[in-house]
Write a structure and sequence with these properties.
This is ABC transmembrane type-1 domain-containing protein. It is a multi-pass membrane protein. One of its GO terms (cellular component) is mitochondrial inner membrane. It is found in: Membrane. There is one protein chain. With about 700 residues, this protein is an all-alpha fold. It has a domain of about 240 residues. Helix content is about 80%, strand content about 0%. Helix 4 runs antiparallel to helix 19. The protein is globular and about 100 Å long.
């Protein structure tokens, strides 16, 4: 009993249990409901794959006369489940995000009140970091709103995918699951290596800032940075090529082993190949991102420690025997700390981008385009990677069409041929992914190298202060590089994925053309505009909250320093009103973000279901072959996954132009200014 009592006291005093004091019963209920919905979302994805497998059975085994009678109920069920998944995903995101917002509001109010009611001696600490607590709260909100639901959804998806696959064909599922698990481990390793490469590049930026007075050492670090950036590009290309290659591996195993099982009557239906490959591999690839979500959980206790550190008794404020000068200084510091706390809560207004020609951005772009031989090669590689979704859909459709004809039995010999095709085409995509990543990594590092060297030379020529050079090297050059590195590669791959999906289904008649229009139009356009709508709502809420926060800061600055102690109650009420205002503004933005999450997770499933419904009517009237419908829809479904990348790259490009604008504000790197520098300050050198 004593051990149990000690354990109970330990848990009660622990940081995690202390945090539960600030979570209400309603928020715990919301989190539990959200967890249940996340389990349903994760379970729904493999189940929808299973439904597509049922429809493929109809394509293979049913005759035209009985097709409509048995296919329509299946389509109705598919559409219903897809719509239900979208609704579940929406409310799942609402539950977690609403809980995160409310908990963050309560924690900020308590921490601000604790600091507000502290004795003056508390503000004698010059190392007090006003941004530390807000950063910890934002991390906690990320854990509750993003990491926790992703962890639950991923585990549920993997578990249900394993159950469904092993129930239908345990022999094939066992082999595919082992391979998928190996692919998961490989992806985890690559993610870790990319994180280390990113940290290494950031360390190189810090090294550049330390050796700005030593040109020889500066150039040596630049060379090291170029090769490290190229290595990072290689790793990112390896990851892209690997993720595109993994589905080919699963399908190749299905073609080899699955057809052998069919010939030996160890597996009932060929569509089990589709179910195993399309449910297990995506589930385990999603599982590879789990360590990144789990690491965020370790920062939860930091909020509790900071709250305990600022613990205060709001009912008692004793006076200390301080001389007038010290008391005035501490009162001024108290006011400054309160203002900084509010500033850390409201954040910063988005900086405007002036649409003028940026000398810094133009210089980086010219240097990047000077590698005119490498760009066509990189673009061709991106096109080949983008064609992966269309190619694998065409291969799948052709392989399944052979099961409809009895003269192809036994299937194993034909399965070997299909397996070889999967490996050859998948290996090609894998290699081109590596090449594109490496080329874009080298081009971007070589381009940004020039502006770094130019800024250093301008500093040596007294045209740029050292602190401004440090800001350029550590804050602005990396965002500029984002417009030319592998993020541009991912954008091109997304564009080419959609283009290749359309070109692979060049219509032979008006029916296929109409089906292509419905599939690609609904999925791509609707997702893109919903993503943009969510971003606009979020920015509007941020601007309104920041404006309200600035009004609170103005009110606090108008209070005389010596009367801060007498205005504590009014300051606390004003801060609570500000937090309530922020909560009201974040509500609509949160709903828009939930709609975006629903469109990302479930709307492709809905459009896939309704496209199959349209295709089913065409099949029943003999206007189109069944596996042409499968090929068109699966190509669209696979390519639409890149829409989020397409929507993100313009934002990255905007940030790159904004960073270049900051560089222009610090130093003029235009050709006119540079030509007036000394010969050592010239930016037209072939070496840079």
């Amino acid at each position: 009993m004593r051990a149990v009592s000690c354990l109970t006291r330990f848990l009660y005093r622990s940081d995690l249990c202390y945090l539960f004091k600030f979570i209400s019963i309603s928020e715990i209920g919301l989190i539990l409901v959200g967890a249940l919905l996340a389990i349903c979302s994760g379970a729904g994805l493999p189940h929808l794959v299973e439904i597509v497998g049922w429809m493929l059975n109809q394509y293979i085994f049913l005759e035209t006369g009985e097709f409509r009678a048995k296919y329509i109920p299946l389509l109705t069920y598919f559409c219903t489940m897809a719509v239900l998944l979208a609704i579940i995903a929406f409310f799942q995101h609402v539950c977690f995000r609403m809980s995160a917002i409310k908990i963050g509001r309560r924690l900020r109010r308590r921490y601000f009140r604790n600091v507000l009611y502290q004795e003056l001696c508390f503000f004698d600490d010059e190392n007090f970091d006003s941004k530390e607590f807000d950063s910890a709260v934002r991390s906690l909100q990320t854990v509750i709103g993003d990491s926790l639901p992703n962890i639950i959804l991923t585990i549920a998806q993997v578990a249900v995918a394993m159950i469904v696959s092993f129930t239908l064909a345990w022999r094939l599922a066992g082999v595919v699951a082992i391979i998928a698990f190996g692919c998961c481990i490989w992806t985890m390793i690559l993610n870790k290596l990319i994180a280390l490469a990113t940290a290494s590049l950031n360390g190189q930026n810090a090294r550049l800032a330390k050796c700005i007075d030593d040109e020889i050492n500066f150039v040596r670090v630049l060379n090291s940075q170029r090769w490290r950036g190229t290595l990072k590009g290689f790793l990112e290309g390896l990851l892209v090529g690997s993720t595109q290659f993994f589905p080919y591996i699963a399908w190749a195993v299905g073609a080899f082993y699955g057809n052998w099982l069919l010939d030996n009557n160890l597996m009932n239906k060929p569509t089990y190949i589709f179910v195993c490959a399309s449910s297990l591999m995506p589930a385990w690839i999603r599982f590879a991102a789990l360590p990144g979500h789990l690491t965020t959980l370790f920062g939860i206790a930091k909020v509790s420690r900071l709250l305990k550190k600022a613990q205060a008794n709001p009912h008692k404020r004793e006076s200390f025997s301080l001389n007038d000068e010290t008391q005035a200084e501490l009162e001024k510091r108290q006011k400054d700390v309160l203002i900084k706390l509010i500033k850390s809560e409201i954040g910063e207004l988005p900086e405007p981008h002036y649409h003028h020609k940026s000398a810094a951005f133009s210089q980086v772009r010219r240097k990047a385009l000077s590698h005119w031989i490498l760009f066509p090669i990189a673009f061709l590689c991106c096109a080949m990677v983008g064609a992966s979704a269309a190619v694998i859909s065409v291969l799948n459709g052709r392989m399944f069409s052979m099961y409809k004809y009895k003269n192809t039995y036994p299937y194993y010999e034909r399965g070997i041929q299909w397996g070889i095709k999967y490996f050859i085409l998948g290996g090609t995509v894998f290699i081109t992914g590596i090449i594109s990543g490496t080329l874009y990594g080298w081009i971007s590092e070589n381009a940004i190298r020039k502006i770094r060297y130019s800024a250093m030379q301008c500093c040596h020529s007294k045209l740029l202060e050292k602190q401004a050079l440090v800001d350029i090297l550590t804050k602005y050059t990396t965002p500029i590089k984002a417009a030319f590195d592998n993020r541009q590669s991912a954008f091109l791959i997304g564009i080419m994925s959609i283009i290749c999906a359309v070109l692979s289904n060049i219509p032979k008649n008006i029916i296929i053309c109409a089906l292509c229009a419905v599939t690609f139009g609904v999925q791509t356009i609707s997702q893109f505009f919903v993503f943009r709508f969510a971003d606009i709502c979020t920015k509007h809420a941020q601007r309104a909250s920041i404006k309200k926060g600035l009004e609170l800061i103005d009110q606090l600055e108008e209070i005389p320093t010596e009367t801060i102690g007498d205005s504590i109650r009014e300051i606390s009420k004003a801060h609570s009103r500000y937090l309530s205002f922020v909560l009201n503004k974040e509500g609509p933005a949160m709903l828009a973000q939930s709609l975006r999450f629903s469109f990302t997770l479930a709307v492709p499933q809905i459009t896939q279901a309704f496209s199959y419904a349209i295709g089913g009517y065409f099949i029943a009237d003999d206007y189109i072959a069944p596996f042409d419908v499968y090929r068109i829809i699966q190509a669209a479904y696979a390519s639409v996954a890149t829409v989020s990348t397409l929507a993100q790259f313009p934002h990255n490009f905007y940030l790159a132009r904004l960073a270049a604008q900051h560089v222009d504000d610090l130093v003029d790197l235009g050709s006119t200014t540079i030509s007036r520098l000394t010969s050592t300050c010239s930016t037209d050198s072939d070496d840079f």
